């Protein structure tokens, strides 16, 4: 029995049923564009922030296991490639779900579910791409690459935090997410190597938390305390405490060796600032602001960090922006030490002695 035969079963006065049937007749499926096939390489990169080769041959196979389970096939009519493209498009522009739905030809609710699903799929491969050197040979290679930046020996990573804007989470604790610049954010800690690869990321703290507090409560600090990385050191700005494994700038340098130490320290540490610049330039949603629940915002931050590393490791790179020293000083958290307190420990003095010999 078709819709026209159904009409004969009801009286003409039954307007609700007739309107319902008319609605069924007028329903049309949105046309879905094949962006992968229709876009040129440049158009594709501009829209999705990755090349076609990386999307099809690296990212999609890495999360392909998510699309193989029968209980997850409610979106089977949208192929895995387009589900990935919907999510990449969201990361690239941060549009409302209805805009993304129109872009790909699906309902906004479906777009939202797909973005969440693919984001969580990317989290399952986090350990493959976000990790510290796992053996002595890997540590040595990281240290050598850092040494070539400014001849600062023994460096295994540069640490800093960046604010990712979010909408007000509401509730009684919303104000803890307001940072010192006045907007709501998550304060995200990251450690990068000299290639701009993110080796560690912490995205669970509200914007009002100080950088040093985040580090003090991080797993990576406990790993350094346990001696897991030997005599390797991190480089951090003056917002961090000076520790045997965390070198900070010397306040009020008084000798040429201390000046050289500070110069090499700044040059080496700015790799993490460039990392943030590349990371946010590739995924503008991190700068424009995340309009979602805090927990999902945290997942998006980590998922995009996974994608950032994939791009760096496969040389699908965005040119790093120049670092403005004035902006670095403006963005820096207030120092933990009082002005003029030199507080040089024996490890830092050993580095100063090294720069005295240069």
UniProtKB/TrEMBL annotation:
InterPro entries per UniProt: HARBI1-like, HARBI1_animal, HARBI1_dom
Pfam family, one: DDE_Tnp_4
Statement: the UniProt record of this protein carries the keyword NAD: no
Primary location class: cytoplasm
UniProt subcellular location: Cytoplasm; Nucleus
Gene Ontology molecular function: hydrolase activity; metal ion binding; nuclease activity
Keywords carried by this UniProt record: Cytoplasm, Hydrolase, Metal-binding, Nuclease, Nucleus
CC terms in the record's Gene Ontology section: cytoplasm; nucleus
Swiss-Prot/TrEMBL cofactor(s): a divalent metal cation
DDE Tnp4 domain location: 159-309
Function: Transposase-derived protein that may have nuclease activity. Does not have transposase activity.
Family, similarity comment: Belongs to the HARBI1 family.
Name the UniProt record assigns to this protein: Putative nuclease HARBI1
Organism expressing this protein natively: Photinus pyralis (Common eastern firefly)
